[in-house]
Amino acid sequence: MRRGWLLIPGAALLAAGLADLLGRAAGWGALGPGDRTSPRVALTFDDGPGERTGELLAVLARHGAAATFFVTAPACAAHPDLLRAMGEAGHEIEAHGRWHTHALHLPPWREWAQVQWHPRATEPGPHLYRPPYGGHGPLTRLLARLARRQVALWDVEGRDWTAAPAADLAAQTLARTRPGSVILLHDGPSVTPELLGRLLVGLRERGLAPVLLRDLPPRRIGWREGLRRVRASYGR
Ligand SMILES: [Zn+2]
């Protein structure tokens, strides 16, 4: 009897691990990179708008580049002027959640509200949702489908949350970038504006044009790409 009770947390852990593997790591069924033969990439910024948004918009304007911002509801409420500035500059604005909370910490009814929230909810779609920390599972995918949202991930991380210098981060990011890549950056870290400037120079040297995510466009992650992602996230 006592051993039976231990099975419950064990099964919950196993389910959480499996959801993490299928959802976050493999990303099967979510949107990932675009056409690998077309010389375009998408630069994406999570977590804004915030104190760094102005600098990012200035760097993008200087290079005549387009980007996609995945914004959260609290950040939009705190900085409506910056949200407007993103849109007026021609950048794409998509959802990063009503709360910046990992899906595993949201009961289903809260995850429904999380997935449904979108800064352009009244405009015609498609509407993309990028889960905080990339954390999502089959339930997220189902809720997104019901809410007419598409889960959008990435294939290259700028790693701008680490303490590494911008030059090193730019070199590592460019080494992993291929045609069709969706590059994950953040609207917040102090290193990101300089990193962005270096990336834009490097992308131009490689003949890769930064476009809005909707113009890439991202493709659904299939079995092969999913396996590659699992290997990259657990085997590196
Ligand atoms: Zn985030």
UniProtKB/TrEMBL annotation:
Q: Could you cite one Gene Ontology molecular function of this protein?
A: hydrolase activity, acting on carbon-nitrogen (but not peptide) bonds
Q: Which InterPro entries match?
A: Glyco_hydro/deAcase_b/a-brl (IPR011330), NODB_dom (IPR002509), Polysacc_deacetylase_ArnD (IPR050248)
Q: What biological process terms from GO does the record include?
A: carbohydrate metabolic process
PROSITE patterns to which the protein is assigned, alphabetical: NODB (PS51677)
Name of one Pfam family that matches: Polysacc_deac_1
- Positions of the NodB homology domain: 39-211
Which residues, by range, are in coiled-coil regions?
none
**What is the top-level taxon of the source organism?**
Bacteria
Q: This protein is called what? A: Polysaccharide deacetylase
